[in-house]
Amino acid sequence: xxxxxxxxxxxxxxxxxxxxxxxxxxxxxxxxxxxxxxxxxxxxxxxxxxxxxxxxxxxxxxxxxxxxxxxxxxxxxxxxxxxxxxxxxxxxxxxxxxxxxxxxxxxxxxxxxxxxxxxxxxxxxxxxxxxxxxxxxxxxxxxxxxxxxxxxxxxxxxxxxxxxxxxxxxxxxxxxxxxxxxxxxxxxxxxxxxxxxxxxxxxxxxxxxxxxxxxxxxxxxxxxxxxxxxxxxxxxxxxxxxxxxxxxxxxxxxxxxxxxxxxxxxxxxxxxxxxxxxxxxxxxxxxxxxxxxxxxxxxxxxxxxxxxxxxxxxxxxxxxxxxxxxxxxxxxxxxxxxxxxxxxxxxxxxxxxxxxxxxxxxxxxxxxxxxxxxxxxxxxxxxxxxxxxxxxxxxxxxxxxxxxxxxxxxx
Amino acid sequence: xxxxxxxxxxxxxxxxxxxxxxxxxxxxxxxxxxxxxxxxxxxxxxxxxxxxxxxxxxxxxxxxxxxxxxxxxxxxxxxxxxxxxxxxxxxxxxxxxxxxxxxxxxxxxxxxxxxxxxxxxxxxxxxxxxxxxxxxxxxxxxxxxxxxxxxxxxxxxxxxxxxxxxxxxxxxxxxxxxxxxxxxxxxxxxxxxxxxxxxxxxxxxxxxxxxxxxxxxxxxxxxxxxxxxxxxxxxxxxxxxxxxxxxxxxxxxxxxxxxxxxxxxxxxxxxxxxxxxxxxxxxxxxxxxxxxxxxxxxxxxxxxxxxxxxxxxxxxxxxxxxxxxxxxxxxxxxxxxxxxxxxxxxxxxxxxxxxxxxxxxxxxxxxxxxxxxxxxxxxxxxxxxxxxxxxxxxxxxxxxxxxxxxxxxxx
Lengths: 411, 411
Hints:
The structure is a homodimer. Chain A is α/β, with parallel strands linked by helices. The first copy, chain A, has three domains: 2-170, MoaB/Mog-like domain (Molybdenum Cofactor Biosythetic Enzyme, Chain A); 177-253, 2-Layer Sandwich (Alpha-Beta Plaits); 270-410, CinA-like (Maf protein, Alpha-Beta Complex). Helices cover 41% and strands 25% of the residues of chain A. The first copy, chain A, contains 14 helices and 17 strands. The first copy, chain A, has helices spanning 10-13, 21-31, 46-59, 77-84, 93-107, 152-170, 190-198, 228-246, 258-269, 283-289, 307-314, 318-324, 329-343, 390-410, and strands at 2-8, 35-42, 62-66, 89-91, 119-121, 125-126, 136-140, 143-148, 177-185, 206-213, 216-225, 250-253, 273-277, 298-304, 347-353, 368-374, 379-385. The first copy, chain A, has a six-stranded mixed sheet, with helices on both faces. In chain A, strands 14-13-15-16-17 form a five-stranded mixed sheet, with helices on both faces. Chain A has a four-stranded antiparallel sheet with strand order 10-11-9-12, covered by helices on one side. In chain A, strand 13 (273-277), helix 10 and strand 14 form a beta-alpha-beta unit. In chain A, helix 2 (21-31) runs parallel beside helix 6. The radius of gyration of chain A is 27 Å and the shape is globular. At the A-B interface, helix 1, helix 2, strand 2, helix 7 and strand 10 of A face helix 1, helix 2, strand 2, helix 7 and strand 10 of B. Strand 14 (298-304) of chain A pairs antiparallel with strand 14 of chain B, so a sheet runs across the interface.
């Protein structure tokens, strides 16, 4: 079963906004066993929308169209589709009454541009009754076409709740078995991983891909076939081999992130963490707290951008700062120890460094970073020299600090 | 002058990685006066690559191809192009000698898969001599085609340094004048902005677009024409009208972000800031320190995820926490006051709230947020109720806190 994705919007072709919804849709469709033949991004131009849709219908089994369904003047998808497929628009009465009721409840009787949302191409079925931004579905020449709003969170919800189940039902007789896993690797380059997995001589049924996703590399493994049991067996055996070869460089798989893996390890071991950040300016803390439930193992931390904050909040002594400079192994260790003591956590991480673009010297160039780790019975200080933009150095530092803790907890 | 962008990689069509490079390229090409007719994302399938390239060449003036140029086995772009355009690959000797010299210097004489990078389609010119990942250019049927690596930072550098100047030279006789600005707005919905700008009756030469970019809305204004002076005059007049209408809801324009605008205001007024964060977990601090040079006005902050940290680090009293709860106006104000005092900063922001998905109650549902702002002679506490996912609530909270400070500094 093969589909195409068409994303519509001048904001996308002009690059004012990066299209993230097509990738999201492709990911979930792929996981559900559908292949994406191509994805297109085009402007709010009716002729182009019609042409792209008709070409897609000529070569694939289903089409997903996103964007251009809103109430404003530059939203032209519905009109374009109506024209291209020769299906005049007509009001969906349920939707129209609902919009009018909503408007009346908030501002009395008015004629609003919102009513435009109720006019759909002939034959359209709304995906989610009782919702203004429900998107709609058309069956054209026996192929389903789904139209979803371009606003990411609306599109995502409708894709998961409506499109995937509808497609699965539509193609319930499909027989392809697929197993897929993405290993997330930190600390090895794409080429190193390519060379190492090549030496494993995996079977022909196994498709391998390598994708640098800064600061990590993703190694994807896909096994396809017609027999579910055979596919699963090959897949399991391959996973074992790859995991043995890569060892602790694999920090997670599929939806896991470094911060979710570290969080799970802290939870399993019953440990709590605090963090003192200088050059990463809150990034480590932000990553840790982006995980739901992180309050059970993360106590908080300090962003000590100025020296005075290192002294006032976590008791790094003035004399240590004077003697070694704020960017030094000694200060990193003192930050970790001070943070651990102040917070009462089992572990504290600390980072101090020069993220650039300015502030470097010959002795301590931009990218110089010290990471401290204070635990029960030891304090470690590590020295790194990263390269890249300000953001890249901050991100590499955060990932390395979390990875140090991960490897420590796995010991 | 019109172009198409083709991004290649199974990692993109399977959604394992979101394609950000096409949007980046579209943005810069658009700013340089080129229109993007369409963007395509396809897998590492030679036949599909050839077909997409030939179709693009049949309808636009130039093509940008990204991805699939690396040394690993799944990089197939060069072979596909060679086949599609009937240009056999041959070694680029400069590139080959350079790769061999590099390899010899690091590991002695070896045969390496890196040598694959030196084999290019007949007629190809490398974009940047003396670089392994230089990308290349072909002129086919008098139309330029640019091939760039898919790795974002390599692609971005080559686009800016090589492709844009080469295209400008190629089309130096183009005569279209373009003025464009994007206003960044926080606190109004796309539809409100649409209605308000509609009432302005802007001229026909002015193209307006509205794009929700969570948590903001971008309002883009484009004026095109053949006469530079006329275009500039219309553009300037329109900017005045729009700025008057939107007032302080416009927080920035073009490349500006809320955090860069707040940073500039702090710098101009000679003020320093510190931040105490609970439910945002370091996000505000991370946003502020993502701006280069932020150390001159940002002192640092505290992420007090646990109550004990609010007490230990910024002196919020136990009794206050007991009486009002951690999520309260009183605690937000005490956090801001304590943070300001501890840090010695002119201003301190604080946030405390419930980001979800768990932890809400009937009195304080998920999305309840209090923001404190402590300045020279006053302490403010504000109450909000946001909705959305954990990330959305965190992001809305951070943006609102920074916007409160921005409006305060503008008074």
